[in-house]
Amino acid sequence: MTRQTWLRLLAAMVLLSLFIAPGIGAAASYVPDIEYLRLSPGQQLSAAQAFERDDWKNYEGNNPNFGYIRDTIWIRMPVKSDPAIDLLEVQYSQLDHLQFFLFENGKQVQHYETGDHLPFAQRPIQDRHFLFPIEKTSGRNYQILLKVNTLGAMQIPVKLWNTTEFYEASSVQSQLHSVYYGILITVIFFNLFIFTALKEAVYLVYALSTLGYLLLIGNLNGTAYQMLWPNYPGLQNHAMLLAVPLAVTFTLLFSRLFLKLRQTAPAWNRLIGFALLLNLIIAAYTFFTDYSIGSRLTVAFAIPSCLLLTILGPYQWYKGNPQAVYYTIAWGALTIGSAVTAANKYGFFPNNFFTTYGMQIGSALEAILLTLALAMRLYQERQDKVVAREAELSAMAARRSAELKLMDNALHNPLTGLPNRSSFEMVLNDLMMRSPDCRYGVAIIRLNNLDSVTKTLGHRNSDRILELASKHYNAAIRDLPGALPVEQNDQHIYFVAALDPQTFACVVNANTAEAAPRAVISTLEVLRFPVDYLGMQIPMDVRIGVAVFPEHGKDANTLIRRAIIAEGSDRATERGMAYYKPSRDSFSADRLTIASELRRALTDNQLALYLQPKLSLSTNTVVGMEALIRWPEKMGTIRPDEIIELAEQTGLIKPLTRWVLEQALNLRARLKEQGWDLGISVNISPNNLREPDFPMFVQRLMSSFHNHQGTITFEVTETSMMQDPANSLMALKSLNAAGIPVSIDDFGSGYSSLSYIKQLPASEVKIDRSLVTDLATESEDRVIVQTTINMCHSLGYQVVAEGVEDEATADILRDMGCNMIQGYLLTPPLPFDKALAWLHGADGRQQGLG
Ligand code: G
Ligand code: G
Ligand code: MN
């Protein structure tokens, strides 16, 4: 509710009361001229004696008031002969003892005794004021005598009435009083109700303070006695004594709470506290003193308290206390109303509605205004709470979003926004925990060229390049069958995580990926694409390491570590990608023992050399053998390529290759003895080509086996050559010059720089197994193989297809003009004796065919 609204309400009430006003005061009645006698308490007179006295004095004014006196006051007044006048009203309800005498032609004819020290029932007419019927006969002279004793204020306002007219006027008054009491009772219940709902003391105190006013005014009017305790005059007198201090006490208490003085004005708070204490003491004291002293003391102490409250409002208003505005207006209404009524009582103001009911109007206004202010305060506090709650909520939301942001930062790479290592580990562990029966491949994608890119182009550019690269890798991995998202939400889906600036990681369902080897190869190709940045093609030298759950590790940490080890292996350097192998793991404990075992196997001659035949498609004859290393003791635990990798990592590749070469020459010699003059191909590691004395060794070996000149072919893979192209090329050239034919192994498995291959002193190209295996079913592979064959032929190379497993593939290759095949169709690699037996068998078959 706004301030305007209740100011309007106030104005409406004032207007309303103006309409009621003309109804009052128009009664046919009069205030008689009076005479009085004042006698000290000891002087006892009968009515007749008093009547006869000759020291009656005229009372000036029409509101007899003698103040607080113990004397007896006699009042004498004539009654008009007008027969309509038949009722005397004493308009003050607090007189202790009151005797009414009617004298007819100087003779007492009527007598009543009453007062508020007597039960209510004693009154000739039951009314809040004292009413006396006057029984007159026309034509006689009537005079009224009143004898009054009271301990309170000796006020004896009298008025003569026609009974009917009195009741008419009194009924209007009663209605007005009802309105007034109704307002106050409503206010009391309203505030009590709010108090029970909110448990805030200010509402209870206000209800009590309003109750105090209700009692006070009810007592002053005489209504309380009539309505509440008509048979207990003692109670009535004490209620009268307590009404003032109680009303003041609760008002003080209320003011203190309402204006929040404790918080806003501690000095005032103490002052009000002091006033409170005084009033309470006075209230208690009334039980121990007589009515006269008690009533005077209560009024005497109420006055400073009321004055205090009268200054308190404006002062607090001036000090900027927001509650003080309503308080001042409300208290002002009460004070002004009371003052007007008081002034009217002493004749300063004429009798009219406002002057008569000023106090009631003021206190009703006060009650309403303060109730409105309290309601507004309630509303305001509720509003404040809502606002505070909203602020709290928005602060909470801000905190939450900050937390989320922090969490987001904690889980993401600041540059690329990709999930970081922690995030990746979490996802990985979660996957493994949820479906432990699945196989997951964890791949590490490392950019080995990033350092030089940064050194060349600077950090700003390399950051941009990294961003582009990360987008590129994310897209590439997304297309990989079995790829699993590392993070997914409405805005993006990430398949790669960033472990550090130059290391990315992803996770795939291993079974799905392995079922689509071609897709894996093409993804690897895409990953190796250079990054297009400002028109420059920036090579990132991507290398990939893979570790598989559960074979290589059962937790994210181990898997990532092992994938990184795989990435760092020579195998990855050669091929661009490598699986984790315990043997390749120079950090694994097993590897140390295996390496020493290999060393021992080598010196103890426990390694074997298997042979796999190479068939010419044009002549259908075996034209050569490929020598492949085997470790019979470890068959099944460590694969040949792992032996080679281990040898390369531990430096054993040098003695191993030398052993293989000697062994190959021995086997060739034995084959020749058996009538098989076949060339033997030996796989050479790129490490061998870097041995400075390797060509020397080979030359010496060849000269000691001089009848094998030109029959030992070196197989080198194109990717392995790439590590150190210049030196490898030099070594190969010098070997070739010394009569060693060179074959390019695994052609098509890595990325081929044809211009480089062209420089190699090779005479043969072996097409990688991965292109050959599905030749019968993959038309695309057929195109690649056909193109490769044609291209190799045009460069003058013989072409060998590896991994031929069925007749259909052999037929296709024959049609394509491929020169030779190798593969399970003929036989897997065999130990010498079995190879020899196979040769005989093949010979037989051939002869059978022929
Ligand atoms: O046929 P097998 O599964 O053994 O071949 C595994 C891999 O090991 C092939 O890539 C082959 O080139 C390589 N390899 C086999 N024997 C030797 C060897 O004596 N020396 C070298 N350097 N590589 C070999
Ligand atoms: O890279 P290199 O060509 O040296 O490797 C030969 C490898 O190929 C050896 O591991 C050998 O066992 C394997 N191999 C030979 N023929 C076949 C074949 O027909 N199918 C399959 N899957 N592997 C073969
Ligand atoms: Mn080979």
From TrEMBL:
The lineage of its organism: Bacteria, Pseudomonadati, Pseudomonadota, Gammaproteobacteria, Pseudomonadales. PROSITE patterns: EAL, GGDEF. This is Diguanylate cyclase. Residues 438-583 form the GGDEF domain. It comes from Marinobacter nitratireducens. GO terms for molecular function: cyclic-guanylate-specific phosphodiesterase activity. Gene3D superfamilies: 2.60.40.2380, 3.30.70.270, EAL domain. The keyword Acyltransferase does not apply. It holds the Pfam family 7TMR-DISMED2. The chain crosses the membrane at residues 179-198, 203-220, 240-259, 271-288, 294-312, 324-342, 354-375. Residues 591-843 form the EAL domain. The keyword Chaperone does not apply. Keywords: Membrane, Transmembrane, Transmembrane helix.
